Each structure stands twice: as structure tokens, then as C-alpha cells.
Batch of 2 targets.
Target 1
Amino acid sequence: MDAVFFADCAARSFFDQVANKWSVMILTLLNEKPTRFNELRRRLEGITHKALTQALRRLERNGLIARQVLPTSPVAVEYSITQLGRTLQIPLGAAYDWAIHHLDEIEQAQQRYDGRAGR
């Protein structure tokens, strides 16, 4: 049977909602320990306030992280990974390991492609 990726396919929704660079990095950081918003922002070089907020909301909506308001002055928010989120650590770790292992090959392919495109 030929693979067909329907518009309402659950896998498409997963990849759209969860499997993007910021979400993967957030889940990796939260796997270490619960973390406050500003610490996440400091550790994710290049992320904007808006992009971090949106990614955290998507992950919380999908049950992969939990948000807890801390009774401090001023009020702080801490994020932690859920049990469901932890189930992604093995597949995400495998993808990360693959990328690191093949980084040189990927860069060489990009250079070859860019060299041909520039002619």
C-alpha cells in the first residue's frame, strides 16, 4: 500500500506541534531538571521570547511538559517534563546522535550542492 499523508494525519500533527528544533531542545533541557522561563531562554541561544513562549505552550498543550506557578515574590513559573515527555528522550536522543555522527557528511553534501547551485 502506498503511503499517503492525509491532512488530518496524527503524525503530521505531531511533527508540526512537537518535532521542531526549539521543542526538541526544550525537552532535552527539561529532562535534566525543572527550569524557569528565563533560564531556558539563556540556555537556548538565539530563541526569542515569543518563540519560547509559543513552544512551551505547544508542549504543555500536548502533555509533554507541565507548568507550575511558584509562590514567590515576584511570581515565577517553572517548567518540567512529564512522563509522556520522557518517553521521547530515546527517539530524540537517537536523532541527535545520528546528526552528530553524520555532521561532516551533511556539511560536505551542503557544500557540494551549494557549489553546483552557484554555477
Target 2
Amino acid sequence: MSTILTTAFLLGLSNIFMTFAWYAHLKDLSAKPWIIAVLVSWGIAFFEYLIQVPANRIGFTRMDLGQLKILQEAITLTVFIPFAIYYMKQPLRSDFLWAGLCICGAVYFIFRGNIGVV
């Protein structure tokens, strides 16, 4: 598997954990003290970091820091939208489309110099 696909796959997995660590407590632990939410979120984030750190190390062998960051942001939005709609029961908004198009533009510009290389 290519470096960018391996990195994207691992970042996708880590983003699932990250999204739950950052936002699921708003739904699932809203009646609990905030310190409980912090501890649960830290526990979830531990697994995010177990995947994210190797993903970035693998990706950094072929991509520069800016490319890794923009790839991360594109994956974050890809994970966040279904999470927001299906798990958090937020309405689908056109803002998601516009944000996605902006991220696509960022991906294009950050990778355009070496699309054939990566």
C-alpha cells in the first residue's frame, strides 16, 4: 500500500477516536460532571494517539508538514460530517458542502506541486 494511502487510512481511524473524544461527551455525558467527561475523553484520545503518531511518522517520510496537516483536515471533515449527522443528530447543512469544497481546494493547492510523486 502506498505511503499516502497508509497514512490516510491510519489518520481516518485516529480521527474516529478523536471525534468521539472531542464531541461525544456533549451527548453522552452531559449530565455528568465535566471532570468525568475529561477523563473519558482522555481515555479515548489515548487510542487516537496510538494510531495518529505512527500515521504522521509514516506520512512524513513522503509528505511535508503542510501536506500532512491538510490531509488531516480533509479526513477530519470527512469523519466529522457523518458523526454530526448520524450520531449527534445535527441537521445536514449546506455549510458542510461549502467547507468540504474549501478543504478540497486546500488539498489541491498543497499537493499540486508533487501529485505524481506522492
